[in-house]
Design a protein that fits this description.
alpha+beta, 6-stranded antiparallel β-sheet, 5-stranded parallel β-sheet, 20 helices, disordered C terminus
């Protein structure tokens, strides 16, 4: 795995050295750190090099930049580069504002360890990648919606318009805004003259003068070039044309598409124009113009020759099927009078064979998700009763994929003279990938929020727990400094208390490191081992912890498990130590091991004061102590049961406490037995 390239922009040598040491300690050879003391050289590198770093760790107080200005300048130079900011305690408000301005995370100096720093850098890189993926998915979704709008417009033109003017108006009013066109015009051939039959928008003055009264073949014109050659011409193609041709519009970008009949002959020209500030014509825009021109060609021929309607429809269906296939869409039509449903050839590929056959039989409820049926019925009924447009999103069962698809439907209702619905037709689009991406993003954000809250709570609890022993140690040190001649007995008592608190801090820090390694995904051994031997070793070591207790060893069954003997021994010691701490000196603690079904189960019982039922669900939380136990203050870190739970979980087991006030507590651990083959058993 390649090392993560990190740029540290920090002018304080001590802070920079600390960052390097923390990263080396937390994840050796995982990060390649480069250190700069000023912002300017970093911006210079970003300007002249391609992707020099994977993530930036940026101090908000630099010699050449301060506060949010630091973030703004870095974002301007590298908008998508992951950014983690560092601040002092007094600048947390500025750090939070930096996150709102685009930084992935912030750290407070002096309040982060190596693991936290490494996690923050990896999280920043991962979040930036997620944001880039979401942006790309949104772009694809937007493009798909535009294609859907165009196809719906073309469907509208085919099913609603009956004259060339109506077809041109429908196509131009939908395609024109997508192209950012100032105008669209349809020029049709009438013998040896080109006649302007429809204009959408406002024609530029030179074009209007040329088209007024028609353009005879004797006049050199780019329109005749398109008709004669049968090829489209756009502004970028004009360099190859003779200079004496018309349409000398230096401020305009012009698009000309031939409009063909079913016989392939060019019968008209579809023209669109827009200011050149919109840039050159893109391939997708040329495709829109070509599709619009194809639709116009069919409509013109239908208006001129009704006898050739069937051939024209087949040509359109072929082109539309190709467009639908490339867009992953389905065209459908429901004849309400004859109770017939028709689909494009892409239907089975997109919706699945079973769904198509069911829909052809008008048995919609068999394939629509039960949770979506009410909304589906309501939208369909509303469209048929008093609407012209139909739009719905619901789930459909796809038999080949054995799962539901999210499908977006958009259609239009055609009515007779009395307003009764005759035909419902439209487009269906599989939007499942976008729905899954949205759900995954929401789940990821929720998980990140949960991790952040857990981390904040853990840091707060750790600081709280460390404050007490530090206060005691500092207080005794101050007393000894102020009263150097204090009596030996008092001095020894102060030293004893400091040693006790120092040991308490040592246990707490050790437990914190254990949990930190667990949070970081530490790898443990998975060796076959006799659990009884491990428990016996822990029992013997626990004898010196007993203070007059009756430490009993119950039956130890033969149980083979897979795991790490050191961690399992630590697990048993934690439970035994916990039981001894909270059991009076004249009480007893017992350890036993049994086998139940396919699990090894060991129990640690005591006859201590017990735990309130309300506290049992929380006993494995970090730093939590039940009220009845807290009053004894046994000096533990409050992390023992949390560590025990982690050890059990990495061994794929279960742990819980059974307790009743006044009747003692039992800790129960279940671990899966190792599967031993017959050969190894012999």
């Amino acid at each position: 795995m390649s090392r993560l390239r990190v740029l540290l922009v920090e002018d304080n040598p001590g802070d920079a050295f600390l960052v390097q040491e923390l990263l080396e300690e937390a994840a050796p050879d995982a990060f390649a750190l480069e250190h700069l003391t000023h912002l300017a050289p970093a911006l210079e590198r970003l300007q002249h090099e391609h992707d020099p770093w994977d993530v930036v760790l940026l101090d908000l107080s630099l010699p050449d930049a301060q506060g949010l200005d630091t973030v703004h300048r870095m974002r301007a130079a590298a908008p998508v580069l992951p950014l983690v900011v560092m601040s002092g305690l007094g600048d947390q408000g500025v750090a939070l504002a930096a996150v709102k301005e685009g930084a992935q995370d912030y750290l407070v100096k002096g309040q982060v360890d190596g693991q936290g720093l490494a996690k923050a850098l990896r999280y920043a890189v991962e979040r930036a990648r997620t944001q880039q993926l979401l942006t790309e998915q949104n772009r694809l979704l937007h493009a798909a919606r535009k294609r859907s709008e165009l196809l719906a417009a073309l469907s509208d033109a085919l099913h609603a318009a009956r004259t060339p003017e109506q077809v041109a108006q429908t196509a131009a009013s939908h395609v024109g805004p997508l192209l950012k066109a100032d105008y669209m015009a349809l020029v049709q051939q009438d013998g040896d003259t080109l006649v302007l039959i429809h204009v959408w928008g406002r024609l530029p003055e030179p074009f209007a003068r040329t088209a007024e009264g028609g353009i005879p073949r004797s006049v050199p014109s780019v329109m005749w070039q398109v008709i004669d050659r049968g090829t489209a011409l756009y502004t970028e193609d004009y360099l190859s044309l003779p200079q004496h041709l018309d349409l000398d519009l230096p401020a305009y970008g012009v698009a000309l598409e031939p409009v063909r009949g079913s016989d392939g002959k060019v019968r008209a020209v579809l023209s669109a124009g827009r200011p050149k500030l919109h840039g050159p014509w893109l391939e997708t825009e040329r495709e829109l113009m070509a599709r619009a021109a194809a639709t116009l060609g069919l409509a013109l021929e239908r208006a001129e020759m009704m006898a050739r309607l069937e051939a024209s429809n087949r040509a359109l269906e072929s082109r539309l099927a190709l467009a639908l296939e490339s867009a992953g869409m389905v065209a459908w039509e429901w004849d309400l009078r004859h109770r017939q449903v028709m689909f494009s050839d892409t239907a089975e590929q997109v919706l699945g064979g079973q769904a198509v056959q069911t829909l052809l039989g008008e048995r919609y409820r068999e394939v629509v998700h039960p949770e979506d049926q009410a909304d589906f019925d309501a939208r369909l009924r509303a469209a048929l009763e008093h609407g012209d447009e139909y739009r719905a999103t619901f789930r459909v069962w796809h038999s080949e994929r054995n799962d539901y698809l999210w499908v977006e439907h958009r259609g239009r209702v055609s009515r007779d003279a009395r307003g009764r619905p005759l035909i419902l037709s439209g487009i269906a689009h599989d939007i499942t990938p976008y729905r899954l991406a949205e759900a995954a993003l929401r789940e990821s954000e929720a998980r990140l929020r949960q991790i952040n809250e857990s981390q904040k709570r853990f840091v707060s609890d750790a600081a709280h727990e460390l404050r007490a022993p530090l206060t005691a140690i500092l207080g005794n040190l101050e007393l000894m400094e102020r009263f150097p001649q204090m009596p030996p007995a008092e001095r020894e008592e102060a030293l004893r208390e400091m040693r006790q608190e120092a040991r308490r801090m040592h246990r707490l820090v050790s437990d914190l490191l254990t949990l930190a390694r667990g949070d970081g995904g530490v790898t443990v051994r998975n060796d076959p081992l006799p659990l009884g031997d491990v428990l016996l070793t822990a029992f013997e070591e626990a004898r010196h912890l007993a203070r007059g207790h009756d430490l009993r060893l119950g039956p130890l069954a033969q149980a083979q498990v897979l795991g790490d003997s050191d961690y399992l021994k630590q697990l048993a010691l934690i439970l035994l130590d916990n039981a001894l701490k909270y059991t009076p000196p004249d009480g007893w603690v017992e350890l036993e091991l049994s086998v139940r079904d396919d699990k090894a189960e060991f129990r640690v019982r005591d006859n201590g004061p017990g735990i309130p039922t309300a506290d049992l669900p929380r006993v494995f939380e970090r730093f939590f102590r039940a009220d009845a136990s807290r009053s004894q203050d046994p000096g533990g870190s409050g992390l023992g049961l949390a560590i025990a739970k982690w050890i059990v979980e990495i061994h794929k087991g279960n742990i819980w406490l059974e307790s009743e006030l006044g009747h003692g507590t039992t800790a129960v651990v279940q671990l899966p037995l190792a599967k031993v083959s017959q050969a190894s058993a012999r």
